[in-house]
Amino acid sequence: MKKYYDPLTHPHCQAQPYAASYWASSTTLPTPKPPPASSQTFEVAIIGGGFSGLLTAYYLASHYNIDCCVIEANQVGYGASARNAGFVLKGSGRLSYPKIVNKWGMSVAKGIYSEFSESVERVSNLITEHSIACDSQERGYLKVAHSLNAMQSLKEQTKLLTELGDSATLLSKEHLKAHFMNHAQAYGAMRLSDGFGINPLKLLLGYRQITLNAGVTLFENSLVRSSHSTSNGHELVINDTSISIRAKNIVFAGNAYNNKVTHPIINNRYIPIMSSIMVTRPLNQLELSLTGLKTHQVTMDTRTLKYYYRLLPDKRLLFGGRGAVFASQQQHPRFLKGLKQGLTDCFPCLNGISHDYYWSGFVAATLDDMPHVNFKDSIGYILGYCGAGVSFSAQAAFRLAQQISGQSPPNLPLYNTSLPYVPFPKFRRLGQLAFYQYATVADRL
């Protein structure tokens, strides 16, 4: 099998290398749970052991006493849940709140805003309630305007978010420099008070433990080779064996790490997009002074092809952005060079700074730019976080568990609409390349 997993070309992701991430360098993975030794039956089988899968199982077991299992092809920590930047934000996918208002009206926008706000608090409460040591940092999310037009847009967003009930604050360029950072390209920023950064691998392992404590069965290194419907539900064949997991209901929770033939209900309904992250060596006192970094709050800019960054507890700077289109090219020097140029553009004093870690991973984007959480006819899925999965995965898992237990979620497009089909799916990557070209020009205007 090729070295780097690509959901559009690989049959599965089992036995792939783990990301050489900063998170993994400071975290020891527990001994993996074994694959099933014999065929077993559960009420719910969840495919995918990341944030979504583990928390769906946790809520099913702890809130509804539903017998369930989680089936993970590798060991938890392989996929996007431990590759991301660890930003806990109430982001609405790639669909902005002004666009949500224009599309569905203020009432729906308030409902969606409430769901994403609850997701941040849900993650925070899980961390506190279960004493999950995941290096939580100070609260606050800065959205930095990269142009005058972007600053005007942030003014409008600040007004709208205030109407939705947020404590959004608009920061002038001078205020941003004096109190947060000396950002060379900033025209100002918007600050939200309730985002925060964490170590996503440590958070994931915390979720793993509370899920096991709730009585959920976890199978690791257990690839679902095939699945088919039965008179009693579904049968999932595990690894190269005759062992199967039978379940009344199944859930697909692999997000961007599903493959393109996982199941008709999600096939060709998302676009896997690669993001790359580097972590610098620790900044010295002079560099901290020159960058003006006075905060560990999570930060993102307003570009279409966004940069996102934060100062880590050990004074390293995490900096992420667009990665390769094709997984096979993710280690090509031009992508790391592009990140370093982006970092230099933001903080010129860091030109030439060395990095200690660099890795990539996929996020799942949908055609309508928002996540979907659905359960119908014994099949459920969570898909399309569009980069906001660290926080919304907790709310999505809770809402999916509600649906499986027979309760109705809020009447919102997140839960009552299906994933839209991606037209001409064979040309997804060509479309992505074309979009990158367009976005690169647009971000310079």
From TrEMBL:
<feature type="domain" description="FAD dependent oxidoreductase">
    <location>
        <begin position="44"/>
        <end position="402"/>
    </location>
</feature>
<protein>
    <recommendedName>
        <fullName>FAD dependent oxidoreductase domain-containing protein</fullName>
    </recommendedName>
</protein>
<dbReference type="GO" id="GO:0016491">
    <property type="term" value="F:oxidoreductase activity"/>
</dbReference>
<dbReference type="Pfam" id="PF01266">
    <property type="entry name" value="DAO"/>
</dbReference>
<keyword id="KW-0560">Oxidoreductase</keyword>
<dbReference type="InterPro" id="IPR006076">
    <property type="entry name" value="FAD-dep_OxRdtase"/>
</dbReference>
<dbReference type="GO" id="GO:0005737">
    <property type="term" value="C:cytoplasm"/>
</dbReference>
<dbReference type="InterPro" id="IPR036188">
    <property type="entry name" value="FAD/NAD-bd_sf"/>
</dbReference>
